[in-house]
Amino acid sequence: MKKITISIIAFILIATSVSIHAQTKKNSQSKMGKIEVIKRNNPFGLVYDGAITENTTGKVNIHPVKYKLNGIEIAANVYTPANYDSSKKYAAITVAHPNGGVKEQTAGLYAQRLAEAGYITIAADASYQGASGGEPRHTDKPVYRTEDIHGMADFISQYPGVDTNRIGAFGICGGGGYTLKATQSDKRFKAVATLSMFNSGEVRRNGFQNSGLKTIQERLKQASDARAQEAAGGEILYSGVASITDEEIKKISTDLYREGYIYYYRTNAHPNSTFLYPTSNLMDLMTWDAVENMDLINQPLLMMTGSKADTKYMTDEAFLKAVNAKEKELFIIDGATHIQTYWRLEYVEKAMHKLTEFFEKNL
Fold first, then answer.
1. Which of 257, 327, 258 is nearest to 299 (CA)?
2. Pick from 224, 313, 234: nearest CA to 4
3. Which domains does the chain carry?
4. In terms of DSSP bridges, do strands 120-124 and 72-80 run parallel, antiparallel, or are they unpaired?
5. Average confidence score pLDDT of the chain
């Protein structure tokens, strides 16, 4: 196997370099106690609480599907509501997963819950990520993530029973930022919602909470050098974190990354989920911004964020720039951090109540 080097980007705070084929999920005992690792055995690979374990008549069902998008095979799950009848017409909602996430995690949770509310939903793994095809693996370019959302609309528009005049878009974390971008141009989407929106371009460029402003040019040079190395047939350099110990997690000062590593590498881990991406992708990420051209969104817009989310500033920025939204609402989930909106029942319930109210009104 060709060795792929993994480097650590500046703002992640974890300094380690390993090979992708040697990545492991480490645990270590600390004086603060061991972080629990939750293992699930779901027939559909789902790793969220309350996940479907079998398709039963009269209940929400899950349908693993595959389709081609720009020559790449996309893996997705379609959820149909209870007593689904293909001869009837249903509103549909696309669900875009967070950065590093896959369809079996929080995107699947919300897709299932929205199906319980009567919608046909689709959650797809991004191109180059999860169970979807594409090389190099874990490629994370905004143009592809945005195209993935258009692709979900393409597929679900042809799904039996879908009313093509009633399609909504929902995105979580980085998927929220890409959903904003996709719906700026794609008017098949009649309503737009985000949860804990993460502006991938802004953070990759400026660092989380603007912590990397002094190293922008240095990191662009590293990305350019990485691309030059790829072009010359050399190793693909990866940025991100392949494995992390309990001690390292507990030393992280930001809720987003500390709780994020617990969610993705401990409590809701999935073998297809990773925080890795080619370092050369920073050339694309750092010059992109989710909130550029926000004035093009003229659909109804709902943006939700936790009151304690250290990412809240990104939702606030985007919301202010959505000056032409038909109507817009900023919904604060009291007490929630960014990651807690992915899984904690009380916050999921609050988000779902608002989402259902929003989509019922606008689809």
1. 327
2. 234
3. 5-362 (3.40.50.1820)
4. antiparallel
5. 92
